[in-house]
Description:
- With about 260 residues, the chain is α/β, with parallel strands linked by helices.
- The protein is about 30% helix and about 25% strand.
- The protein has ten helices and twelve strands.
- It has helices spanning about 40-50, 70-75, 95-100, 115-125, 140-155, 170-185, 195-200, 220, 225-230, 255-260, and strands at about 5-10, 15-25, 30-35, 55-60, 65, 80, 160-165, 185-190, 205-210, 210-215, 235-240, 245-250.
- The protein has a six-stranded mixed sheet with strand order 6-7-8-3-9-10, with helices on both faces. Strands 2-1-4-5 form a four-stranded antiparallel sheet, covered by helices on one side.
- The longest helix is centred in the middle third of the chain and has 14 residues, at about 140-155.
- The radius of gyration is 20 Å and the shape is globular.
- It starts with a strand and ends in a 5-residue tail after the last helix.
- Residues about 260-265 have low confidence and may be disordered.
- The structure holds adenosine-5'-triphosphate.
Amino acid sequence: MDLTLDQLSVVTDGRALVRDLSLHVGSGTVVGLVGPNGSGKSTALRCIYRALKPSAGTVRAGEEDLVRLPPRQGAQLVAALAQDGAVDLDFTVAEAVALGRAPHLRGNQALSARERELCVRAMDRLGIGHLAGRGVLTLSGGERQRVLLARALVQEPRILVLDEPTNHLDVRHQVELLSQLRGSGLTVLVVLHDLNLAAGACDRIGVLSAGRLVTAGTPQEVLTEDLVEDVFGVRPTVVPHPKSGVPQLLYSIHPDSEESSPSCA
Ligand SMILES: Nc1ncnc2c1ncn2[C@@H]1O[C@H](COP(=O)(O)OP(=O)(O)OP(=O)(O)O)[C@@H](O)[C@H]1O
């Protein structure tokens, strides 16, 4: 099922946070959304998982208008991993993951054997099976992030949107999470700050700046030295990954000799 943002705008207190954003995520593809801090990435994502109502434009899952769909039906199609998603209540990990089934259950209906198995498999897949009986409040940031992803997966959505899901994850878990997204077969829109991870994980990348889509295309088309300098204000050296050929960005980090040296008056 594809995901389409069509001329999406979000205006708050007279300020346009997102302006005329149109972006298509093909069925089963992974699209990255990148851009500087404050460029509107989370705001756009919040419209997709319906934490925010757009001021104008539409969000479609296939032919369904997500903005108008009843919440339960929407949650059967779209799962979200929000930025620093909170798990405030002291559920066990197994209970928190099982919450992902809520959109498919009626009232206090118990999980079926298939659903229980689904939860166990999701926890194993994310390497949190051994934590099943632990309280989520006792987890590290990275462990909690993986619980949230397991919860999103057991929701069995068609579309998955994720806001900086690699936050808190060590490098192994970053690579594993993005590999799992690629292998999931789901339609994925993911906000990432790390442009190198985005280049490796995404079929296409959309670049936001000041609420507007600057460009969208394959990593090779989008991640050029000029584009990154224009949008992010820092010029990288772009080299092809020696194995995959996807663009990888290198930065020179050096002290500004004039301004950053401590004065020795
Ligand atoms: N409810 C709100 N009221 C007013 N301004 C808001 C509101 N929500 C977000 N903003 C502003 O909208 C702009 C876009 O915010 P958003 O969180 O979408 O950016 P982002 O690209 O996800 O940023 P980051 O990379 O820092 O997470 C920011 O300037 C933010 O301060």
